[in-house]
Every structure is written in C-alpha cells, then in structure tokens.
Amino acid sequence: MKVWICKVCGYTTNPDEKEPPMVCPICYASKEEFELIDQNDVPGY
Ligand SMILES: [Zn+2]
C-alpha cells in the first residue's frame, strides 16, 4: 500500500488517499511537502 507522508512531521495519510491533503493536519505544511511512499517504509509502523 502506498501512503502519503509529510516530510516535515511524519504524518501519513490513509492508504486509500489518491492525493495528498492540501495542508498537513498536524503541522500545516503544504502538499508539496508530502511524498508518496510504501506503507512498509513508514518509520515506526
Ligand atoms: Zn506535517
């Protein structure tokens, strides 16, 4: 499963999200700060 991760705070979206959020709900970083990664690579997951 691919998830979007916020490179600023590490927040990850739900796996069914096709697009990153407009802003991170945790740190309010813009969607340019999000990166699509495999869920298995999420730190501490
Ligand atoms: Zn964030």
- Proportion of beta-strand residues: 15-25%
Describe the sheet with the most strands: 2 strands, antiparallel
Count the strands? 2
Rounded to an integer in angstroms, the radius of gyration calculated over CA atoms is 9 Å
Helix segment tally = 0
CATH topology: Rubrerythrin, domain 2
Helix residue percentage: under 10%
- Strand order, main sheet: write it out: 1-2
Shape: globular
**CATH class descriptor name:** Mainly Beta
The CATH architecture can be given as Single Sheet
Summary, kept brief:
The chain has 45 residues and is an all-beta fold.
Describe it:
- The chain is mainly beta and 45 residues long.
- It has a single domain (2-41), classed as Rubrerythrin, domain 2 (Single Sheet).
- Helices cover 0% and strands 22% of the residues.
- The chain is built from no helices and two strands.
- A two-stranded antiparallel ribbon has the order 1-2.
- The protein is globular, with a radius of gyration of 9 Å.
- The two termini are 13 Å apart.
- The model has no long low-confidence stretch (mean pLDDT 92).
- It binds zinc ion.
- Zinc ion binds next to loops.
